[in-house]
Every structure is written in C-alpha cells, then in structure tokens.
C-alpha cells in the first residue's frame, strides 16, 4: 500500500459530509484516496467502496457516493 499523502480540498470535505462521512472527514478522505483503485467514471478517477473520488495532482477535489443507503 502506498504511503503517499493526499491533500483534500475544502469542497471535497463539504461533499463528503453531505454523503455521510462524519468525524474527521479530511482524514477519512485521505485514507480513502490512498486505498482507492483506478476507475473510469464521469464522477471521478478513483473508487473506494461506494465512493468515487476525483483526484487531480494528489488533491482530492470531489467525492460522489454511487449507491444510497
């Protein structure tokens, strides 16, 4: 597993909270980005479980939830 540190934008934190990522949302998004797999989607370029992340130059710019609970 890569130990690369990702940055997380304020907008991504806001979006993550809207999709149910509570607690230390920034830290959770960093961990999700580090563990994510490449994916082809109109919502982003990396996927972790039911979340698709849009990562540009090591910064999480957006997060989308694919399946609603």
Task: Give an overview in words.
The protein is of the alpha+beta class. The chain is built from two helices and five strands. It has helices at 10-18, 25-35; strands spanning 7-8, 37-38, 46-48, 51-56, 59-65. It has a five-stranded mixed sheet with strand order 1-5-4-3-2. The longest helix is centred in the middle third of the chain and has 11 residues, at 25-35. The protein is globular and about 30 Å long. The N and C termini lie far apart (28 Å).
What order do the helices and strands come in, and which of them pair?
Elements: E1 7-8, H1 10-18, H2 25-35, E2 37-38, E3 46-48, E4 51-56, E5 59-65
Parallel strand pairs: 1-5
Antiparallel strand pairs: 2-3, 3-4, 4-5
């Amino acid at each position: 597993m890569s130990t690369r540190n990702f940055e997380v934008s304020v907008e991504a934190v806001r979006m993550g909270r809207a999709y149910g990522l509570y607690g230390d949302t920034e830290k959770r998004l960093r961990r999700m980005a580090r563990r994510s797999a490449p994916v082809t989607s109109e919502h982003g370029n990396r996927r972790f479980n039911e979340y698709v992340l849009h990562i540009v130059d090591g910064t999480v710019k957006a997060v989308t939830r694919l399946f609603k609970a």
